Amino acid sequence: MGAAEEISEAKSPRGHELSATGVTVAYEGVDVLHDASVTPRPPGDVRTSGGAGMGLWGKALDAAGISDPRLREDYTHQRKLVAGYRRSSYLAARLLLPPPLLPHLIAATAFMHRTDTLLDSGPAEERAGAFTEWVKEVRDGLAGGGSEHAAVRPLLHTVSAHPGLRDRAEDFLDAAPLELEFTGFATEADYQRYVDAYALPAFMLIAGLIAGEDTAAGYREACRVYIDGSQRLDFVNDLSEDLADGRLNLVRETLDAHGVTRVDLENARDTAGTRSLLAHLLGQARQSLSTSRSLVGLAPPEGRPLFRAMIEIERLTATAAAAKGPGVLRAPARPPLSTTARVLLRERRRARHPR
User: Does residue 33 surpass a pLDDT of 80?
Assistant: First the structure.
């Protein structure tokens, strides 16, 4: 994602500002993407209270009870990775979640992303070895309660604060080898099994943290509807990038039904078949995302603004992809920054008075 596609926050006395070159969203006059808490402190400096030089991230670490300097540095490094991976999603969480929960959500997201990256990057035999080493690091840490691995320590601390994450992390690691064995989806049933076996356990790392230890009846099922729509949207919108990596995530029987081949997609051919295929898949994604709005009411009040924003931004992305049509075979679609900013600002107001 390039700079022109990011939502950034900046100091502004006006609360928010839409400019001709991009969108700046100011939150209480603080630059939350470049706050002072990102700067490493001198050895021995264990300040944990807000004050001069302390930004919102440092205050979130304080609120979460994370006082150990090395652990704060670990969480801060993961925050940078997550923000760089998907800036708008990070900003949504930063603006809309209660500060005590934010570092823990960062830790869960970083764990999921690192696992997924190890599964997807490099030759198959190297991926398998790297994944095996990573699983051992994580499970040894979960068993012993400690680790010398900087990417594992935040996860362990978050598990100590939110014990329900332990089982969800184990479920995700159990499911992850499915990615190593991935060769595509022959049928819609294959895709649905993938959602159940891998995509849903991955999403529950995040959704479970937001729900807390006592989830409402139907919560997991609503999460499943959401991730079905979100995953299907990603597979369409990321076609150009996935194909460049040699991976096709669309169901082959669906391609056949529309008379589309992999070569058509790789060459970004604008045909009646590709147009009908993309419209069909995006329609499915939009339907699932619309149905998943029930998730908002099942979440605790403090999680509802984030879920509303997530669903709405995904729907905006689906609309942008539909408008782009076969252009998504060359590059992903993005919703207008001003529209995304308005969603975040609206939900920020709601987050101040959760209900």
Answer: no
Of residues 294, 312, 308, 317, the one with CA closest to residue 351: 308
The one-character DSSP state at 10 is -
The confidence score (pLDDT) of residue 45 equals: 41
Taking residues 163-177, what's their average pLDDT? 94
Q: CA neighbours within 13 Å on the CB side: how many for 273?
A: 14
Examine the pLDDT at 97 and tell me if it is beyond 90.
Answer: yes
* 43 class by beta-carbon count within 10 Å (0-12 exposed, 13-18 middle, 19+ buried): exposed
Q: Tell me the sheet residues that pair with 24.
A: 8, 17
With a CB cutoff of 8 Å and minimum separation 6, the contacts of 201 are: 168, 171, 172, 174, 175
Q: Looking at residue 38, what is its pLDDT? A: 37
Cβ atoms within 10 A of the Cβ of 218, count?
12
Tell me the CA distances in angstroms from 345 to 30, 252, 301, 349, one per residue in order: 15, 40, 17, 6
Separation between Cα atoms, residue 173 and residue 255, nearest integer Å: 31
Q: Mention every residue, 6+ apart, whose C-beta is less than 8 A from residue 336.
A: 316, 320
Mean pLDDT score of the chain: 85
**Is the pLDDT confidence value at 318 over 90?**
yes
Helices 219-237 and 200-211: crossing angle, nearest 10°?
Answer: 130
Q: Report residue 18 as tokens.
A: 């839409």
Residue with tokens 């760089």: 84
* Intra-chain end-to-end CA distance of the chain, in Å: 34
The model carries a pTM of 0.84
Name 97's Cβ contacts closer than 8 Å, sequence gap at least 6.
105, 210, 302, 303, 306, 351
Task: Specify the pLDDT at position 200.
Answer: 97
Which one, of 337, 303, 351, lies nearest residue 25 by Cα? 337
**Position 289, amino acid:** L
Which amino acid appears at position 129 of this protein? G
